[in-house]
Amino acid sequence: MKRPILLIGKGGQIGSELAGLLPRLGEVVALGRAELDLSNPEEIRETIRRARPRLIVNAAAYTAVDQAEKEPSLAQAINADAPEIMAEEAKKFSASLVHYSTDYVFDGTKNAPYLEDDPPNPLSVYGRTKLAGEQAIRSSGVSHLIFRTAWVYAAQGRNFLRTVLKLATQRDELRIVRDQYGAPTRNVEIAAATIAALARTTEPADGGDGFADLGGTYHITAAGVTTWYDFAEAILQEASATQASSSWLASALGGLPLRARRVTPITSAEYPTPARRPAYSVLSNSKLTKAFGIEIADWQAQLHCVFSLNS
Ligand SMILES: NC(=O)c1ccc[n+]([C@@H]2O[C@H](COP(=O)([O-])OP(=O)(O)OC[C@H]3O[C@@H](n4cnc5c(N)ncnc54)[C@H](OP(=O)(O)O)[C@@H]3O)[C@@H](O)[C@H]2O)c1
Fold first, then answer.
1. Is pLDDT above 60 for 205?
2. For residue 64, how far is its CA from the centre of ligand 1 (angstroms)?
3. Dist. CA 2 → ligand 1 center (Å)
């Protein structure tokens, strides 16, 4: 009988989408924090040994970028040590590993989209621990795909989109930074690209040779570039243009009317945060497109989908 796919982090933005899509590729054992606490190394080993997966997909992470500055050991345990254990165990079972990483492994001093091989230089605890996770997976020798993504949001949960909509019911004016450049990427596109890439590979446990020359690190982000300020403006424009009958929007607004009509640009210096963020963290998808033929929609189209599909 074919061994299952083990999805770790089923409750997260990307994990919840994967939980819906991965069953297309076979039987899935999907775990959230309640079933597997990644701060417990023995629990990780035991869970993998029990499941005997052919593929592990790790969508869990310590993603609280500012809080990580205060909890570096916990961030290290979840973002670096846990993936290292997953990689070791996967290798023992001839399983493959899919893992996610971040644009925050870069320092943002480049002024053209980052390529996978550009030298990383993280500015924060979160970025450093995510980079350590990547490196541990690579040096384990496991068959793997690492997908770096950026500025992730979803129709549900806690993220920039939902925060802007909520604040827009409470204030007349929003003040948002305009000196950080990136590509806001919807969870749905990341999960769909993951499935499309996996559909083009054979895993070692299937008698294949792992991800073979397709294995490695890839960027999956929305096409195009924007700033948090311009993203917030686009969110308010979409919200204003969306029918009042949208139950998703009504719920995102907490049943309150949209108050803010104006977004004022500010600098990062005017909005100090515990973690430093790169000023420019646009990632190039060209390696993904070349290897797998996958094109990712631009950030405006992705944002429009949230409003139009949830109306
Ligand atoms: N969010 C972004 O803007 C962003 C940007 C670039 C890259 N990424 C990367 O993309 C991947 C997925 O991110 P996401 O936005 O989907 O994250 P998310 O929504 O914050 O979900 C992370 C998941 O990890 C789980 N988790 C955290 N600590 C855990 C622990 N000790 N044991 C078990 N589970 C634990 C969380 O569980 P709880 O819900 O119980 O806390 C949550 O379900 C991550 O690798 C992240 O680094 C994210």
1. no
2. 8
3. 28
Q: What separation in angstroms does the CA of 309 have from each of 80, 165, 231, 306?
A: 36, 17, 19, 6
**Catalytic residue from among 62, 100, 114, 126:** 126
Q: What is the DSSP letter of 79?
A: I
Cβ–Cβ < 8 Å for 69, 274: yes
Tell me the pTM: 0.96
Rounded distance from Cα 12 to ligand 1 centre (Å): 5
**Three-state secondary structure call for residue 148:** strand
Q: Which of 276, 296, 63, 66 is nearest to 179 (CA)?
A: 276
pLDDT at 207: 57
Mutate to test the pocket of ligand 1, among 8, 17, 18, 33 (most ligand atoms within 8 A of CB): 33
The count of C-alpha atoms lying within 13 angstroms of the C-alpha of 173, restricted to the half-sphere facing its C-beta, is 4
| 161 in contact with ligand 1, CB cutoff 6 A | no
* 126 counts as catalytic: yes
CA 205 to each of CA 1, 5, 78, 95: distance values in angstroms, whole numbers, following the listed order: 11, 11, 26, 6
Name the pairing type of β-strands 96-102 and 143-149. Answer: parallel
Distance 114 CA to ligand 1 centre (A): 23
Q: What is the pLDDT of residues 10-43, one digit of tens each?
A: 999 999 999 999 999 999 999 999 999 999 999 9
Instruction: Evaluate: CB of 13 within 6 angstroms of ligand 1.
Output: yes
Distance CA 62, CA 38 (A): 10
- Give the C-alpha separation, 155 to 223, whole Å: 19
| Alpha carbon distance 14, 64 (integer Å) | 15
Q: With a 6 A CB cut-off, is 15 part of the ligand 1 pocket? A: yes
CB atoms within 10 A of CB 259: 14
**Angle in degrees, CA 189, 122, 57, rounded to 5:** 40
